[in-house]
Amino acid sequence: IIAVGVTWFKIALLKYNHQRSITVDEFLLFVAAAASLLFRMFKAFALVEAFIDGDKDTELILSFCDTVLCMVLVLVQTSFIVEGFSRQSERSRHFMYKPGRGGVTFLLIANLAMWLYMTFLMKGMEVETDHFTTDHVLDLYRSLPWEVIVNLFVPFLVFYHFQSSACLAHIWGRAYRKETTQKDPTVSTS
Fold first, then answer.
1. Which is nearest to 71 in space by CA: 153, 167, 168?
2. What do you get for the CA distance between the two ends of the chain, in Å?
């Protein structure tokens, strides 16, 4: 979250393109982000329910903090990526110093690492779903509904990090190059 904030501050120096339409990459990112947020909300509801019932152990509190921080990260990073798609260099100083490019690189590598971690975690998921399951969640949803929720939404968690990496790579390449405008051949310049 801190890296996104610092990079967002630096990339805000670039020109904002107001006349831009949504891309397929952004649409896929929105779908993955929405599913990721929905999964985290299911988990947060169960943890809040356990807290209300009087269970106040350390695992519950840490799990709830992790869930909330993941939701904040998804919201902040998705907003950053959408804005990053609209940024481009316009001054020679931007081409030379490339403000925010190091941060975009860090975020790209971090999302690739999370994607790989989640992918390897999914490989062993047929055996157990302990990484996504706590006793508090099972108390509210029971075993079968929670397994359905996990199997439905966890692939979107994996896809979110992959799609974020793809979008960040697009920003990394596009935001810092000089745009060449092509002239319409039907318009006469004479």
1. 153
2. 53
Instruction: Report the alpha-carbon distance of residue 145 to residue 188 in Å, rounded.
Output: 65
2, burial (CB in 10 Å: exposed 0-12, middle 13-18, buried 19+): exposed
Query: What are residue 87's phi and psi, to 5 degrees?
Result: -100, 145
- Give one DSSP letter per residue of 133-182, joined into a string: --HHHHHHH-HHHHHHHHHHHHHHHHHHHHHHHHHHHHHHHHTTS---PP
Closest CA to 168 of 3, 18, 36, 31: 3
The amino acid occupying position 123 is K
- The stretch 174-183 carries a mean pLDDT of 56
Task: Using the structure block, give the residue that is written with the tokens 């810092």.
Answer: 176
Distance CA 155, CA 4 (A): 23
From the CB of residue 135, how many other CB atoms can be counted at a distance below 10 Å?
12
Chain Cα centroid distance, residue 3: 13
Contacts (Cβ under 8 Å, ≥6 apart) of 86: 16, 17, 18, 20
pLDDT given at position 185: 47
pLDDT in tens, 105-148: 899 999 999 999 888 877 765 544 545 556 666 666 766 777 78
Taking the model in full, what pTM does it have?
0.77
- Region 149-170: mean pLDDT is 89
The CA distance from 178 to 94, in Å, is 10
Mean pLDDT over 32-54 rounds to: 88
